[in-house]
Amino acid sequence: MPRGPEPVTAAAERTAGTAGPPPAAAGHPGAPPPAPPATARAEPEEHLMAPSDTTTGHPPEPAPGRPAPSEAPERPAATGRADPAELAGRLRAVIQHLLPLLRGHSTHRDLTPSRTAALATLDAHGPLRVSELAARMNIALSTTSRMVDLLDDRGWIARRTDPVDQRASLISLNDAGRALLRAVRRETTGLLAERIGRLPPDRQHLLHAALPALEQLVDDAG
Asked: Which residue in 1, 84, 159, 172 has the fewest CB atoms around it within 10 Å?
């Protein structure tokens, strides 16, 4: 015979048996520990910088109160003044050592520095009287006269009568004297260029920067 429907109480008991035990109340033995509260994430350092400009691509600007990392402290300007006496002493020593160096490597051994200076003066300012040459070279007239005679004997200068004063002579370089002076200048320039080329680049820049002051010394003396 077919079985009738089960009583409601029996079905309810079977359902409760398969659903598992009810959850334990908080604080009750056997209850799982409560989940730890959510902590706030540490804000990255970027919050201290303004957002970058996406339209221009410029780097972000520092936030107020924080210096830019690329800023370097300004160096104080040099205010010291060089001692002219010290500069003069060092310059004199350099010239005294430099002139023998140039003369020692020259192939024109009979052309002393004073004779070279006389040729250069005549090249720049000639023709001159002997007295004018002595004044420009700042040497005695008698010494200048003897040197002019020597330059004339070597065939490096030309003499002609001064049209203003027939008793005086005007001295100038001739072709041989000009050729000799050009050769000496090429020789010494090449020697100096070789020595300067051995200097470090920063020293070469310093030497180049000092040239206007040295040239002014010569101009003021002339």
From this structure: 1
Query: What does the buried/exposed string (b/e) look like for 82-92 if buried means 16 or more CB atoms within 10 Å of the residue's CB?
Result: eeeeeeeeeee
Encode pLDDT of 34-80 as tens digits: 555 554 454 444 444 444 444 445 455 545 555 454 444 444 445 56
User: What is the rounded CA–CA span in Å between residue 168 and residue 145?
Assistant: 12
In one-letter notation, the amino acid at residue 165 is: D
Distance, CA of 77 to CA of 83 (rounded, Å): 18
Burial (0-12, 13-18, 19+ Cβ within 10 Å), 122: buried
Cα angle for residues 136, 140, 141 (degrees, 5° grid): 85
